[in-house]
Structure formats: structure tokens, C-alpha cells
Amino acid sequence: MHLPKAELHLHIEGTLEPELAFALAERNGVTLPYASTEELRAAYEFDDLQSFLDLYYALMAVLRTEEDFAELADAYLARAAAQGVRHAEIFFDPQAHTARGVPIGTVIEGLGRALERSEESHGVSTRLILCFLRDLSAESALGTLDAARPYLHRISAVGLDSAEVGHPPAKFREVYEAATALGLRKVAHAGEEGPPEYIREALDVLGVERIDHGLRCMEDPELVARLVADRVPLTLCPLSNVRLRTVDRLADHPLPAMLAAGLHCTVNSDDPAYFGGYAGDNFDAVREALALGPEQLRTLARNSFEAAFLDDDEERRARYLAEVEAYTFD
Ligand SMILES: [Zn+2]
């Protein structure tokens, strides 16, 4: 769907399509344990979180140079633009790369190179969000933020991702305080697999401004009331929820109930190469499976721009919002 929208929940490592993975593997002399793009494409049909993570981390081995990261981001931005994305706030996981011996500067400068030419190349404005892997230690997160200091001009916010259960937000209090002191905005994954309490902790202990996923708030009416009253944006990823079995079928997704409750929902793609589609595909899928009407779809798009970190460019936000109002559905 070409409805103008902002993508607010997108892991750049999760946009690596099989064709690019093979091209980069060849260029960098990395041997992938797959004979062909077809065989690799078949591996993308995983059926649980662990097989997804195994594949996800195995394929990262092909990303070595600044040029690799720039190509990855450029390919995503081209796809996103073709599906109506006008603004993208992009997550990256520096620890997944530094652990393989790739310097953080290579990652950030490579991504930054693609992002800084994105408006001209694709008509998409961008922000970059540095995420900490929550299954690693708080010390590792602090070290990562420290290593990113020379590149802060390229970074708008920090986030928290990877395996949620057993790694509550409070574990990262100190690094979020440090990020606040550096003037960075804050988001965190919470309430995808973890309990509603993790959403509260992300708000109260980490001071986040948006919750990534947040689905499980629906188990806690008091929390829902608070999220509505404070207009806390939730970055939902419907196709991801189905692939990772957070919901059984898209038709069971709580999005309509969440919208009806007045929650500030947005629709995003998470790891689109792996989860069956980009932002526009997610909009198409929920429109079909949940019978969302034009006004609900328009609300989702409006919400995405309202939740975007565009406070330093309100003129642009207003322009995007006007595009949403002017859009005609087919
Ligand atoms: Zn995510």
C-alpha cells in the first residue's frame, strides 16, 4: 500500500535479502552454508524464534565493510520508498558486528553514508537508532554507547532489542541515563514476549518515549489507560507477530482492539526480509485480514508521523501529515 507512512520499527540487519547476502558473501570471501539463493530463500521459512535467530546471526557474517552496510541500507530504503515510506527510523545492533570484529565506526559510517543521501536517492528522510542487545550485559551496553561517542552526530536515539524474557528493562537503567545525558531519544522493545510489567519498567525506569511492540499491554487495563492518556506510541509489527507465533493468525491480531481502545498504534515491518514483507505489505496484510477501513488505515499512518522523532523539523512532519490526509484509497 502506497499510503504515506513513517517506519519506526525496522532492524536494518533484518532487511538482508538472500540475493544481497550471496553477493556480499562472494565479494568478501565468506562461505554460506547454502548452495543457492533458492536454498537460502527456503531457509527463511523458519518456524520458530531460535531458527530465525540462528539464520539471522549466521548471515550477518557477510557484512564486513562500510560499503556493505551502505548497500544494505540503500536496498532497504529503495524498497521502503516503493511502498510509501516517507520517513524511516532505523535500528541497528552494533554489538552483533563488533562481536565479529567489525569496528562500530565501519557500521555507523556505512549506514550513515546511505542515510545521508536517502532523501535525494529515495525521497525518504531518516533517523538512526542504536540498539543494545538485551541478552548481553549492561556493561557491554555501556561500552557500546561509549564506543559510539565519536559518531553521535549520526545517531538520534537508543533502543533495546533481542531476546526479551529474563532481561527486564531495569537491567539497562545506567546506560539509558548515560544516553539521556548525551541528548539521545529513547525507545525500547517491551511487551512482545515479556509481561506488561516490562512496559511499565521501560517507561518508568528507562524513560522511553515509544514502546516497540507493546502488544501485551492488552492484558493490563490500567496500563492501557495510562498509555492512552499519555499518548505513548506503540510500534506494532503484525507480520512479525505471526511469524514468531506471538499471535496464531493475523486475523487474531489485537490491532483493531488496540485502536478501539485509543492506543497510539503504528504498523511497521521489524525484520522484513525474514517476516514476509515491508511496511506497505504489513498495511496490506492488516487491511485484508482485519478488515480495516480507510479511516483506520489513515489513523495508523497519521500516528506514525506524529510518533516520529521529527521535533527538529516540524515543517516536514506537517508536510507528511498533509500527504496522509490527501491520500485516496483504491
Ligand atoms: Zn524489533
From TrEMBL:
<comment type="function">
    <text>Catalyzes the hydrolytic deamination of adenine to hypoxanthine. Plays an important role in the purine salvage pathway and in nitrogen catabolism.</text>
</comment>
<dbReference type="GO" id="GO:0009117">
    <property type="term" value="P:nucleotide metabolic process"/>
</dbReference>
<keyword id="KW-0862">Zinc</keyword>
<feature type="binding site">
    <location>
        <position position="271"/>
    </location>
    <ligand>
        <name>substrate</name>
    </ligand>
</feature>
<keyword id="KW-0479">Metal-binding</keyword>
<dbReference type="GO" id="GO:0000034">
    <property type="term" value="F:adenine deaminase activity"/>
</dbReference>
<comment type="similarity">
    <text>Belongs to the metallo-dependent hydrolases superfamily. Adenosine and AMP deaminases family. Adenine deaminase type 2 subfamily.</text>
</comment>
<dbReference type="GO" id="GO:0043103">
    <property type="term" value="P:hypoxanthine salvage"/>
</dbReference>
<keyword id="KW-0546">Nucleotide metabolism</keyword>
<feature type="binding site">
    <location>
        <position position="189"/>
    </location>
    <ligand>
        <name>Zn(2+)</name>
    </ligand>
</feature>
<feature type="domain" description="Adenosine deaminase">
    <location>
        <begin position="4"/>
        <end position="317"/>
    </location>
</feature>
<feature type="binding site">
    <location>
        <position position="270"/>
    </location>
    <ligand>
        <name>Zn(2+)</name>
    </ligand>
</feature>
<dbReference type="Pfam" id="PF00962">
    <property type="entry name" value="A_deaminase"/>
</dbReference>
<dbReference type="InterPro" id="IPR028892">
    <property type="entry name" value="ADE"/>
</dbReference>
<feature type="binding site">
    <location>
        <position position="11"/>
    </location>
    <ligand>
        <name>Zn(2+)</name>
    </ligand>
</feature>
<dbReference type="GO" id="GO:0006146">
    <property type="term" value="P:adenine catabolic process"/>
</dbReference>
<dbReference type="InterPro" id="IPR001365">
    <property type="entry name" value="A_deaminase_dom"/>
</dbReference>
<dbReference type="InterPro" id="IPR032466">
    <property type="entry name" value="Metal_Hydrolase"/>
</dbReference>
<dbReference type="GO" id="GO:0008270">
    <property type="term" value="F:zinc ion binding"/>
</dbReference>
<keyword id="KW-0378">Hydrolase</keyword>
<dbReference type="InterPro" id="IPR006330">
    <property type="entry name" value="Ado/ade_deaminase"/>
</dbReference>
<feature type="site" description="Important for catalytic activity">
    <location>
        <position position="213"/>
    </location>
</feature>
<feature type="binding site">
    <location>
        <position position="9"/>
    </location>
    <ligand>
        <name>Zn(2+)</name>
    </ligand>
</feature>
<feature type="active site" description="Proton donor">
    <location>
        <position position="192"/>
    </location>
</feature>
<protein>
    <recommendedName>
        <fullName>Adenine deaminase</fullName>
        <ecNumber>3.5.4.2</ecNumber>
    </recommendedName>
</protein>
